[in-house]
Amino acid sequence: MRLLRFDKYVNPHNAPVNSRLHTLFDYLVIIVGIFPMALMVNWVLLPHAFVGGGLTGICSAIYYVTGGLFPSLFPEYGGAIPVWLTTFVFNAILLVIAGLTVGWRFCIRTMVGVAAITFWYRVIPVLPEPIIEDPWLGAIIGGFVFGLSLGCVLAVNGSSGGTDIAAMIVNHYHDISLGNIMLACDVIIIASAFFLPLPENMQTEGINPTYMHIKRVLYGVCMTISYTVAVDWLIARVHRSVHFLIYSAKYDEIATAINITVNRGVTVLDGTGWYSKQPVKVISVLVRKPESSQVLRIVHELDPNALVSIADVGGVFGSGFDKIKVK
Question: Phi then psi for 223, rounded to 5 degrees?
Answer without folding.
Answer: -65, -40
